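Section 5: illustrative case.
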Protein backbone atom coordinates (compact mmCIF):
# COMPACT_ATOMS: atom_id res chain seq x y z
CA UNK A 1 0.00 0.00 0.00
CA UNK A 2 1.43 3.36 -0.99
CA UNK A 3 2.22 6.02 1.52
CA UNK A 4 -0.47 8.67 1.77
CA UNK A 5 -2.84 10.54 4.07
CA UNK A 6 -4.24 8.58 7.01
CA UNK A 7 -7.83 9.21 7.99
CA UNK A 8 -7.73 9.07 11.79
CA UNK A 9 -10.85 9.00 13.99
CA UNK A 10 -10.41 10.01 17.61
CA UNK A 11 -13.15 9.15 20.12
CA UNK A 12 -13.33 10.94 23.47
CA UNK A 13 -16.14 11.57 25.95
CA UNK A 14 -16.16 15.39 25.72
CA UNK A 15 -13.92 18.34 24.81
CA UNK A 16 -11.08 18.45 27.37
CA UNK A 17 -9.06 21.61 28.01
CA UNK A 18 -5.74 19.74 28.13
CA UNK A 19 -6.34 17.98 24.81
CA UNK A 20 -7.54 20.80 22.55
CA UNK A 21 -4.04 22.24 21.85
CA UNK A 22 -2.67 18.79 20.97
CA UNK A 23 -5.58 18.11 18.62
CA UNK A 24 -4.88 21.39 16.85
CA UNK A 25 -1.24 20.35 16.41
CA UNK A 26 -2.21 16.97 14.98
CA UNK A 27 -4.72 18.58 12.61
CA UNK A 28 -1.87 20.58 11.07
CA UNK A 29 0.02 17.43 10.05
CA UNK A 30 -0.21 17.23 6.24
CA UNK A 31 -0.62 13.44 6.08
CA UNK A 32 -2.97 12.92 9.06
CA UNK A 33 -6.63 13.68 8.34
CA UNK A 34 -8.04 13.93 11.88
CA UNK A 35 -11.70 13.89 12.87
CA UNK A 36 -12.61 14.00 16.57
CA UNK A 37 -15.84 12.40 17.74
CA UNK A 38 -17.26 13.61 21.06
CA UNK A 39 -19.97 11.95 23.12
CA UNK A 40 -21.06 15.13 24.93
CA UNK A 41 -20.75 18.90 24.62
CA UNK A 42 -21.24 19.72 28.32
CA UNK A 43 -17.72 21.09 28.79
CA UNK A 44 -18.10 23.79 26.13
CA UNK A 45 -20.93 25.31 28.14
CA UNK A 46 -21.10 26.30 31.78
CA UNK A 47 -21.62 23.17 33.85
CA UNK A 48 -21.55 22.07 37.47
CA UNK A 49 -18.31 20.20 38.18
CA UNK A 50 -18.84 17.80 41.07
CA UNK A 51 -15.06 17.61 41.57
CA UNK A 52 -15.01 21.35 42.25
CA UNK A 53 -17.88 21.01 44.72
CA UNK A 54 -20.61 21.82 42.21
CA UNK A 55 -19.08 25.17 41.26
CA UNK A 56 -20.18 26.43 37.85
CA UNK A 57 -17.31 26.00 35.40
CA UNK A 58 -16.90 27.60 31.98
CA UNK A 59 -13.44 27.15 30.46
CA UNK A 60 -11.92 30.38 29.17
CA UNK A 61 -9.76 28.76 26.48
CA UNK A 62 -10.99 27.55 23.06
CA UNK A 63 -11.90 23.85 23.15
CA UNK A 64 -13.15 23.29 19.60
CA UNK A 65 -11.08 25.53 17.38
CA UNK A 66 -8.52 24.34 14.84
CA UNK A 67 -9.57 20.74 14.17
CA UNK A 68 -12.49 18.87 12.57
CA UNK A 69 -14.94 17.51 15.10
CA UNK A 70 -18.42 16.08 15.42
CA UNK A 71 -20.75 15.40 18.34
CA UNK A 72 -22.23 11.93 18.07
CA UNK A 73 -26.02 11.46 18.32
CA UNK A 74 -26.99 11.13 21.97
CA UNK A 75 -28.82 8.26 23.64
CA UNK A 76 -28.11 9.47 27.20
CA UNK A 77 -26.08 12.43 28.48
CA UNK A 78 -26.19 13.77 32.04
CA UNK A 79 -23.28 16.21 31.65
CA UNK A 80 -20.81 13.94 33.43
CA UNK A 81 -18.47 11.08 32.57
CA UNK A 82 -19.01 7.55 33.91
CA UNK A 83 -18.56 4.10 32.33
CA UNK A 84 -22.15 4.45 31.10
CA UNK A 85 -22.22 8.17 30.27
CA UNK A 86 -22.29 9.75 27.82
CA UNK A 87 -23.92 7.06 25.66
CA UNK A 88 -24.13 7.62 21.91
CA UNK A 89 -24.84 5.87 18.64
CA UNK A 90 -23.62 6.25 15.08
CA UNK A 91 -19.89 5.67 15.48
CA UNK A 92 -19.91 2.46 13.38
CA UNK A 93 -21.57 4.27 10.49
CA UNK A 94 -19.04 7.06 10.64
CA UNK A 95 -16.06 4.73 10.82
CA UNK A 96 -17.30 2.89 7.74
CA UNK A 97 -18.01 6.10 5.83
CA UNK A 98 -21.36 7.55 4.81
CA UNK A 99 -22.98 10.43 2.96
CA UNK A 100 -20.15 10.51 0.46
CA UNK A 101 -17.45 10.52 3.16
CA UNK A 102 -14.74 7.84 3.00
CA UNK A 103 -14.15 5.47 5.89
CA UNK A 104 -11.31 5.74 8.39
CA UNK A 105 -7.92 4.04 8.37
CA UNK A 106 -7.45 3.98 12.17
CA UNK A 107 -9.38 4.61 15.38
CA UNK A 108 -7.81 6.20 18.47
CA UNK A 109 -9.85 5.87 21.66
CA UNK A 110 -9.30 7.85 24.86
CA UNK A 111 -9.91 5.38 27.68
CA UNK A 112 -11.18 1.84 27.37
CA UNK A 113 -13.75 1.17 30.11
CA UNK A 114 -16.82 3.03 28.85
CA UNK A 115 -19.69 1.65 26.77
CA UNK A 116 -18.90 4.23 24.09
CA UNK A 117 -15.27 3.13 23.87
CA UNK A 118 -16.10 -0.57 23.75
CA UNK A 119 -18.80 0.00 21.14
CA UNK A 120 -16.34 1.91 18.95
CA UNK A 121 -13.62 -0.72 19.31
CA UNK A 122 -16.00 -3.56 18.44
CA UNK A 123 -17.23 -1.62 15.40
CA UNK A 124 -13.68 -0.90 14.25
CA UNK A 125 -12.68 -4.54 14.64
CA UNK A 126 -15.66 -5.64 12.55
CA UNK A 127 -14.64 -3.16 9.84
CA UNK A 128 -10.98 -4.20 9.90
CA UNK A 129 -9.85 -0.80 11.23
CA UNK A 130 -6.84 -0.88 13.62
CA UNK A 131 -7.46 0.50 17.12
CA UNK A 132 -5.15 2.57 19.34
CA UNK A 133 -5.98 3.16 23.01
CA UNK A 134 -4.60 5.79 25.35
CA UNK A 135 -5.17 6.15 29.09
CA UNK A 136 -3.18 7.18 32.18
CA UNK A 137 -3.87 4.07 34.31
CA UNK A 138 -1.19 2.42 36.44
CA UNK A 139 -1.07 -0.68 38.59
CA UNK A 140 -0.94 1.03 41.97
CA UNK A 141 -3.77 3.46 41.39
CA UNK A 142 -6.13 1.84 43.96
CA UNK A 143 -6.68 -1.29 46.04
CA UNK A 144 -9.02 -3.97 44.70
CA UNK A 145 -10.36 -7.29 45.95
CA UNK A 146 -9.22 -10.62 44.55
CA UNK A 147 -12.55 -11.10 42.79
CA UNK A 148 -12.30 -7.68 41.17
CA UNK A 149 -8.73 -8.32 40.03
CA UNK A 150 -9.73 -11.68 38.52
CA UNK A 151 -12.61 -10.02 36.67
CA UNK A 152 -10.23 -7.35 35.42
CA UNK A 153 -7.80 -9.96 34.10
CA UNK A 154 -10.65 -11.58 32.19
CA UNK A 155 -11.77 -8.20 30.84
CA UNK A 156 -8.28 -7.43 29.57
CA UNK A 157 -7.99 -10.78 27.83
CA UNK A 158 -11.07 -9.80 25.83
CA UNK A 159 -9.94 -6.19 25.38
CA UNK A 160 -6.59 -7.29 23.99
CA UNK A 161 -8.39 -8.89 21.05
CA UNK A 162 -9.93 -5.53 20.14
CA UNK A 163 -6.79 -3.34 20.42
CA UNK A 164 -3.85 -3.21 18.00
CA UNK A 165 -1.59 -0.84 19.94
CA UNK A 166 -1.51 1.44 22.97
CA UNK A 167 -0.19 4.96 23.35
CA UNK A 168 1.67 5.04 26.65
CA UNK A 169 1.44 8.19 28.77
CA UNK A 170 4.53 7.42 30.86
CA UNK A 171 6.59 4.80 32.68
CA UNK A 172 3.87 3.57 35.07
CA UNK A 173 1.34 3.44 32.25
CA UNK A 174 3.73 1.32 30.15
CA UNK A 175 4.11 -1.08 33.06
CA UNK A 176 0.32 -1.29 33.30
CA UNK A 177 -0.10 -2.28 29.67
CA UNK A 178 2.73 -4.80 29.78
CA UNK A 179 1.14 -6.38 32.85
CA UNK A 180 -2.22 -6.87 31.14
CA UNK A 181 -1.25 -7.25 27.46
CA UNK A 182 2.21 -8.82 27.69
CA UNK A 183 5.76 -7.79 26.87
CA UNK A 184 5.37 -8.22 23.12
CA UNK A 185 2.26 -6.08 22.67
CA UNK A 186 2.84 -2.90 20.59
CA UNK A 187 3.34 0.05 22.96
CA UNK A 188 4.14 3.50 21.55
CA UNK A 189 5.47 6.00 24.09
CA UNK A 190 3.36 9.17 23.79
CA UNK A 191 4.36 11.41 26.72
CA UNK A 192 1.50 12.97 28.65
CA UNK A 193 2.07 16.61 27.82
CA UNK A 194 0.50 20.05 28.05
CA UNK A 195 0.95 23.08 25.83
CA UNK A 196 4.40 24.02 27.15
CA UNK A 197 4.67 27.14 25.03
CA UNK A 198 1.33 28.45 26.28
CA UNK A 199 2.17 28.03 29.97
CA UNK A 200 5.66 29.52 29.61
CA UNK A 201 4.32 32.52 27.73
CA UNK A 202 1.43 33.09 30.12
CA UNK A 203 3.66 32.78 33.20
CA UNK A 204 6.08 35.32 31.74
CA UNK A 205 3.17 37.68 31.04
CA UNK A 206 1.81 37.12 34.55
CA UNK A 207 5.13 38.13 36.12
CA UNK A 208 4.41 41.71 35.03
CA UNK A 209 1.34 41.69 37.29
CA UNK A 210 2.87 39.82 40.22
CA UNK A 211 2.58 42.73 42.64
CA UNK A 212 -1.11 43.15 41.84
CA UNK A 213 -1.83 39.50 42.73
CA UNK A 214 0.31 39.78 45.85
CA UNK A 215 -1.73 42.80 46.89
CA UNK A 216 -5.00 40.97 46.19
CA UNK A 217 -3.89 38.10 48.43
CA UNK A 218 -2.19 40.36 51.00
CA UNK A 219 1.19 38.64 50.70
CA UNK A 220 4.51 40.11 51.72
CA UNK A 221 7.16 39.80 48.96
CA UNK A 222 9.87 38.69 51.40
CA UNK A 223 8.14 35.40 52.30
CA UNK A 224 8.08 32.24 50.12
CA UNK A 225 4.79 30.82 48.82
CA UNK A 226 3.70 27.17 48.96
CA UNK A 227 1.04 26.62 46.30
CA UNK A 228 -1.64 23.95 46.02
CA UNK A 229 -3.91 24.16 42.95
CA UNK A 230 -6.34 21.34 42.29
CA UNK A 231 -9.80 20.06 43.13
CA UNK A 232 -10.37 19.96 46.88
CA UNK A 233 -11.24 16.27 46.88
CA UNK A 234 -10.32 13.76 49.58
CA UNK A 235 -7.84 11.92 47.34
CA UNK A 236 -5.93 15.15 46.61
CA UNK A 237 -4.97 15.25 50.32
CA UNK A 238 -4.84 19.00 50.80
CA UNK A 239 -5.56 18.18 54.46
CA UNK A 240 -2.17 16.41 54.64
CA UNK A 241 -0.60 19.58 53.26
CA UNK A 242 -2.31 21.72 55.89
CA UNK A 243 -1.11 19.40 58.66
CA UNK A 244 2.43 19.38 57.24
CA UNK A 245 2.34 23.17 56.97
CA UNK A 246 1.66 23.44 60.70
CA UNK A 247 4.81 21.39 61.33
CA UNK A 248 6.81 24.18 59.67
CA UNK A 249 5.97 26.44 62.61
CA UNK A 250 9.18 27.35 64.48
CA UNK A 251 7.36 27.35 67.84
CA UNK A 252 3.92 26.73 69.26
CA UNK A 253 1.51 29.45 68.15
CA UNK A 254 4.00 30.98 65.72
CA UNK A 255 2.98 30.86 62.08
CA UNK A 256 5.39 29.36 59.51
CA UNK A 257 7.54 31.69 57.45
CA UNK A 258 6.10 30.60 54.07
CA UNK A 259 2.56 31.40 53.03
CA UNK A 260 0.21 28.57 52.02
CA UNK A 261 -1.98 29.45 49.02
CA UNK A 262 -4.77 27.01 48.13
CA UNK A 263 -6.42 27.39 44.72
CA UNK A 264 -9.46 25.28 43.93
CA UNK A 265 -12.83 24.20 45.24
CA UNK A 266 -14.53 20.95 46.12
CA UNK A 267 -15.97 18.66 48.76
CA UNK A 268 -13.15 19.30 51.25
CA UNK A 269 -13.19 23.08 51.20
CA UNK A 270 -15.34 23.60 54.30
CA UNK A 271 -13.23 21.11 56.29
CA UNK A 272 -9.98 22.70 55.11
CA UNK A 273 -11.12 26.22 55.96
CA UNK A 274 -12.11 25.01 59.41
CA UNK A 275 -8.70 23.38 59.87
CA UNK A 276 -6.99 26.57 58.74
CA UNK A 277 -9.00 28.68 61.16
CA UNK A 278 -8.12 26.37 64.05
CA UNK A 279 -4.39 26.96 63.45
CA UNK A 280 -4.77 30.62 64.31
CA UNK A 281 -2.37 31.43 61.46
CA UNK A 282 -2.89 34.46 59.24
CA UNK A 283 -0.70 32.98 56.50
CA UNK A 284 -3.16 30.65 54.73
CA UNK A 285 -5.13 31.84 51.71
CA UNK A 286 -8.10 30.15 50.00
CA UNK A 287 -8.58 31.46 46.47
CA UNK A 288 -11.44 29.28 45.19
CA UNK A 289 -11.77 27.97 41.65
CA UNK A 290 -9.61 29.79 39.10
CA UNK A 291 -9.84 29.29 35.37
CA UNK A 292 -7.13 27.93 33.09
CA UNK A 293 -5.87 31.35 32.01
CA UNK A 294 -5.53 32.51 35.63
CA UNK A 295 -3.31 29.67 36.85
CA UNK A 296 -0.01 30.97 35.39
CA UNK A 297 -0.32 33.99 37.68
CA UNK A 298 -0.33 31.69 40.70
CA UNK A 299 2.52 29.61 39.26
CA UNK A 300 4.56 32.79 38.92
CA UNK A 301 3.79 33.74 42.53
CA UNK A 302 4.77 30.33 43.92
CA UNK A 303 8.12 29.29 45.34
CA UNK A 304 7.14 25.61 45.43
CA UNK A 305 4.11 23.72 44.15
CA UNK A 306 2.72 20.74 46.10
CA UNK A 307 0.52 17.83 44.95
CA UNK A 308 0.17 15.37 47.88
CA UNK A 309 -2.45 13.12 46.21
CA UNK A 310 -3.27 9.47 46.78
CA UNK A 311 -3.99 7.41 43.66
CA UNK A 312 -3.35 10.27 41.21
CA UNK A 313 -3.38 8.83 37.64
CA UNK A 314 -0.94 11.48 36.33
CA UNK A 315 -1.29 15.09 37.53
CA UNK A 316 -1.01 17.36 34.47
CA UNK A 317 -0.94 20.38 36.77
CA UNK A 318 2.65 19.30 37.53
CA UNK A 319 3.57 19.61 33.84
CA UNK A 320 2.05 23.09 33.83
CA UNK A 321 3.91 24.43 36.85
CA UNK A 322 7.24 22.92 35.73
CA UNK A 323 6.97 25.15 32.66
CA UNK A 324 6.95 28.08 35.07
CA UNK A 325 10.35 26.90 36.42
CA UNK A 326 9.04 26.17 39.89
CA UNK A 327 10.12 23.45 42.31
CA UNK A 328 7.57 20.68 42.80
CA UNK A 329 6.83 18.46 45.79
CA UNK A 330 4.73 15.36 45.05
CA UNK A 331 3.76 12.15 46.78
CA UNK A 332 4.98 8.83 45.42
CA UNK A 333 1.39 8.07 44.36
CA UNK A 334 1.26 10.88 41.81
CA UNK A 335 1.50 9.09 38.46
CA UNK A 336 3.89 11.55 36.82
CA UNK A 337 6.44 11.37 39.64
CA UNK A 338 8.49 8.53 38.16
CA UNK A 339 8.98 10.45 34.93
CA UNK A 340 9.11 14.09 36.01
CA UNK A 341 10.27 14.55 39.61
CA UNK A 342 13.43 13.06 41.12
CA UNK A 343 13.80 13.65 44.84
CA UNK A 344 16.27 16.47 45.43
CA UNK A 345 16.52 17.44 41.75
CA UNK A 346 13.33 19.07 40.41
CA UNK A 347 11.81 19.18 43.88
CA UNK A 348 11.10 16.51 46.46
CA UNK A 349 9.16 13.24 46.78
CA UNK A 350 7.55 11.83 49.93
CA UNK A 351 5.55 8.74 50.78
CA UNK A 352 1.82 9.37 50.27
CA UNK A 353 0.04 9.93 53.58
CA UNK A 354 3.27 10.66 55.49
CA UNK A 355 2.65 14.14 56.91
CA UNK A 356 6.07 14.30 58.56
CA UNK A 357 7.67 13.26 55.28
CA UNK A 358 5.78 16.02 53.46
CA UNK A 359 6.92 18.60 56.02
CA UNK A 360 10.51 17.42 55.59
CA UNK A 361 10.17 17.64 51.79
CA UNK A 362 9.02 21.24 52.14
CA UNK A 363 11.89 22.09 54.48
CA UNK A 364 14.42 20.63 52.05
CA UNK A 365 12.92 22.47 49.09
CA UNK A 366 12.74 25.78 50.94
CA UNK A 367 16.11 25.39 52.70
CA UNK A 368 17.41 28.49 50.90
CA UNK A 369 15.92 30.71 48.18
CA UNK A 370 18.58 29.37 45.83
CA UNK A 371 17.53 25.75 46.49
CA UNK A 372 14.01 26.26 45.18
CA UNK A 373 15.22 28.38 42.25
CA UNK A 374 17.71 25.72 41.14
CA UNK A 375 15.10 22.99 41.45
CA UNK A 376 12.71 25.07 39.37
CA UNK A 377 15.34 25.55 36.67
CA UNK A 378 15.89 21.80 36.48
CA UNK A 379 12.13 21.22 36.40
CA UNK A 380 11.78 23.45 33.34
CA UNK A 381 14.66 21.66 31.63
CA UNK A 382 13.10 18.26 32.29
CA UNK A 383 9.64 19.19 31.04
CA UNK A 384 11.13 20.27 27.70
CA UNK A 385 10.96 16.68 26.44
CA UNK A 386 7.33 16.22 27.46
CA UNK A 387 5.85 18.15 24.57
CA UNK A 388 3.39 17.91 21.71
CA UNK A 389 6.10 17.36 19.10
CA UNK A 390 7.05 14.14 20.88
CA UNK A 391 3.38 13.18 21.03
CA UNK A 392 2.97 13.61 17.30
CA UNK A 393 6.14 11.65 16.56
CA UNK A 394 4.79 8.79 18.65
CA UNK A 395 1.39 8.94 16.98
CA UNK A 396 3.05 8.86 13.58
CA UNK A 397 5.10 5.80 14.58
CA UNK A 398 1.93 4.03 15.68
CA UNK A 399 0.04 4.91 12.51
CA UNK A 400 3.00 3.87 10.36
CA UNK A 401 3.14 0.49 12.08
CA UNK A 402 -0.59 -0.20 12.02
CA UNK A 403 -1.74 1.28 8.72
CA UNK A 404 1.43 1.22 6.53
CA UNK A 405 0.09 4.42 4.97
CA UNK A 406 2.26 7.04 6.64
CA UNK A 407 5.98 7.65 6.99
CA UNK A 408 7.38 7.90 10.53
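Designed sequence:
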Amino acid sequence: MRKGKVRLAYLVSHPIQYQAPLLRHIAREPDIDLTVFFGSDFSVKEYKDEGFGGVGVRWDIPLLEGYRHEFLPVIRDHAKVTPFLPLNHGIARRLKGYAGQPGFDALWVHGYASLNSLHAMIAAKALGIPVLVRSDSWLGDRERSGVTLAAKQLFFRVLKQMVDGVLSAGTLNSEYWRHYFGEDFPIFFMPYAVDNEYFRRRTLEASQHRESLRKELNLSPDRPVILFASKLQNRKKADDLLNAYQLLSPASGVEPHPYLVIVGDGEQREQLERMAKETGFDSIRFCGFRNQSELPGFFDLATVFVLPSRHEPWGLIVNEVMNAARAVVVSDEVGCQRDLITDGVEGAVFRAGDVNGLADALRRTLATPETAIEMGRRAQERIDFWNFDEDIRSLRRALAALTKKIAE
